[in-house]
Amino acid sequence: MHMKYKTLLALLSVIALCIIIGSGFCTRNDVMLTDYQAADDILTMKVDVSDSMGYVRACSEKQDGDRLYVRFWSAFGGYSGSLGASDSFSIKVPDACREIYFCRSGNESDLVLSRDDAASGWKREPFGEDASMQVQANVQK
């Protein structure tokens, strides 16, 4: 009987470890831009999540023509884990880039910033379901 408990404890430990580590390889589709600062070809973004649980740990970019798509990754530590969490990310923006999108679920993306030639910088776009600039994107995982 003692062996059954050891086996059960080992199995539960493996499951818990998989949840804690595995959560950090999931994408976050609810990231919002809270602030940004542009200097030369570097854009520093402050972000937050709209959900009450979880944090962001990393981002990755993919350029498609004049668009840059940014995908965010969950922090490690389970559903509300904060291991490796950050709310500030700096990305290199190519000169050809005119628009920056945050990736959402179902291959959708929200336009969050567009290049403002008149002001020689970036302009923040409406965000969320009411944004009129929502587009379908062919961003592969």
Q: How would a textbook summarize the main sheet?
A: 7 strands, mixed
Give the H and E element order: HEEEEEEEEEE
**Through-space gap between termini:** 46 Å
Q: What share of the residues lie within helices?
A: 10-25%
Number of strands: 10
Short précis:
By secondary structure, the protein is mostly beta strands. The protein is 15% helix and 43% strand. The protein has one domain (2-136).
Q: Which descriptors apply to this entry?
A:
141 residues, mainly beta, seven-stranded mixed beta sheet, three-stranded antiparallel beta sheet, 10 strands, 15% helix, elongated, disordered C terminus
Task: Characterise the protein shown here.
With 141 residues, the protein is mainly β. It has one domain. It is built from one helix and ten strands. The strands form two sheets. Strands 1, 4, 5, 7, 8, 9 and 10 form a seven-stranded mixed sheet that branches. The longest helix is centred in the first third of the chain and has 21 residues, at 2-22. The N and C termini lie far apart (46 Å). The relative contact order is 0.18.
